[in-house]
Automatic annotation (TrEMBL):
GO terms for molecular function: ligase activity. Its EC number is 4.1.1.36, 6.3.2.5. Keywords: Decarboxylase, Flavoprotein, FMN, Ligase, Lyase, Magnesium, Metal-binding, Multifunctional enzyme. Catalyzes two sequential steps in the biosynthesis of coenzyme A. In the first step cysteine is conjugated to 4'-phosphopantothenate to form 4-phosphopantothenoylcysteine. In the second step the latter compound is decarboxylated to form 4'-phosphopantotheine. Catalyzes two steps in the biosynthesis of coenzyme A. In the first step cysteine is conjugated to 4'-phosphopantothenate to form 4-phosphopantothenoylcysteine, in the latter compound is decarboxylated to form 4'-phosphopantotheine. Binds 1 FMN per subunit. The gene is coaBC. This is Coenzyme A biosynthesis bifunctional protein CoaBC.
Length: 417
């Protein structure tokens, strides 16, 4: 059986065919970095800019980076019927940046240049990465066009917030090329144009919380946040509106994801509980600290002259997973927990996982064997996904992105219509 990690390198003789559309926005220069990532990872990329895009980045640049001639017109090489062939043969079409004008044309089926013809003929997954001023993004016409495109199966990434053209700041900035690339490879790996989480709101927590002893010291854990971020990217690639509650993670923000940063378990609980009210699914991939000091020193705790260590009294933190599982703010919401187990005299990793699943009351529990520090900080993972309905899905060793998609497969199958 072919794994999700193998799909992206199995098409077109090992070279997945990607069409990179570029429309006429100032962020067009960032698409050069996106193109480089695709070509250096072995993708066969055809760049299709609009005429306006060439005002920002010229055709020689696109040709040099892609190794292919570049055209904006349907009249070039007419005998090869490029306005039909390019879209028909693609495994993925991504437009970055996608302007308000480009999305309006795509939503209404207009086809007056090579890129819009390609979008109209493509039967593969389509990803649009909008970039524009905040007022343009928030305009009712743009919002309607985005909703239309999403309803038809396009993945329209939420733009980032930050510096725009000139001195303006706000929502409308093109996400970082590295993050667009990660999302696109996730879409490509699934090999389907169906965004099965479109219209769904999901919450993902990631990272490890910190419980401070004094202004410089804290109790923490080894969670890197990599799995939670992979889950957020995967959900966005499948069309979901994603809120990522990130505890002390230094990774770049996933494209199209709302990131809420926290430090302590109390802060994590507050944000997750608040976001869960409107969520169709909550995945608790974060590692909240089980305990916190009962008192936090205002000043750095000094070493004692006699060499003795200070006594630290601990209190148990609230159990966030149990709380949102047993007191569900939204009926029908799917709740997913994680269990990092090592096995001990009381039971094996899976036995302890099943006991935790019953104790927490969640719908799914992803069980990791972390003996010897496995998983932490690694780009790869393996797990068993246990279901409250008795299901048990073995996910073999592979990328954390592959595991993330397998988790969302299980979630999607349990969401109410």
């Amino acid at each position: 059986m072919t794994s999700i990690d193998d799909v992206a390198v199995s098409r077109a003789g090992g070279r997945p065919r990607v069409v990179l559309g570029v429309s006429g926005g100032i962020a067009a220069y960032k698409a050069c970095e996106l193109l480089r990532r695709f070509t250096e990872s072995g993708h066969d990329v055809t760049v299709v800019p609009t005429a306006a895009a060439l005002e920002f980045v010229g055709a020689p640049t696109w040709a040099a980076l892609s190794g292919k001639p570049v055209s904006t017109e349907v009249w070039s090489d007419v005998h090869e019927v490029p306005h039909v062939r390019i879209g028909q043969s693609a495994d993925l079409v991504v437009v970055a940046p996608a302007t308000a004008d480009l999305m309006a044309k795509a939503a209404h089926g207009l086809a007056d240049d090579l890129l819009t013809n390609t979008l109209l003929t493509a039967r593969c997954p389509v990803v649009l990465a909008p970039a524009m001023h905040t007022e343009m993004w928030e305009h009712a016409a743009t919002r309607h066009n985005v909703a239309t495109l999403r309803a038809r199966g396009c993945v329209v990434i939420e733009p980032a917030e930050g510096r725009l053209t000139g001195k303006d700041t706000g929502k409308g900035r093109l996400p970082e090329p590295a993050e667009i690339f990660e999302l696109c490879t996730g879409v490509l790996a699934r090999g389907t144009a169906a965004p099965d989480l479109a219209g769904r709101r999901v919450v993902v927590s990631a990272g490890g919380t910190r419980e401070y002893l004094d202004p410089v010291r804290f109790l923490g854990n080894r969670s890197s946040g990599l799995q939670g971020y992979a889950l957020a990217r995967a959900a966005a690639a499948r069309g979901a509106e994603v809120t990522l509650v990130s505890a002390n993670v230094t990774l770049p923000d996933p494209a199209g994801v709302k990131v809420v940063r926290v430090e302590t378990t109390a802060q994590l609980r507050q944000e997750v509980v608040a976001a869960a009210v409107a969520a169709d699914a909550v995945v608790m991939a974060a590692a909240p600290a089980d305990f916190r000091p009962t008192e936090v020193s205002d000043a750095k705790i000094k070493k004692a002259a006699d060499g003795s260590a200070p006594a630290i009294e601990l209190a148990q933190n609230p159990d966030i997973l149990h709380e949102i599982s047993t007191d569900r703010a939204r009926p029908g919401a799917v709740i997913v927990g994680f269990a990092a187990e090592t096995g001990d005299a009381t039971g094996s990793v899976l036995e302890l996982g099943r006991a935790k699943l019953a104790r927490k009351g969640c719908d799914l529990l992803v069980v990791n064997d972390v003996s010897g520090g496995a998983v932490f900080g690694s780009p790869d993972n393996e797990a068993v996904i246990l279901g409250a309905d008795g299901a048990a899905v073995d996910v073999p060793y592979g990328s954390k992105t592959a595991l993330a998609h397998r988790i969302w497969d299980e979630v999607a199958g349990r969401l109410p219509d």
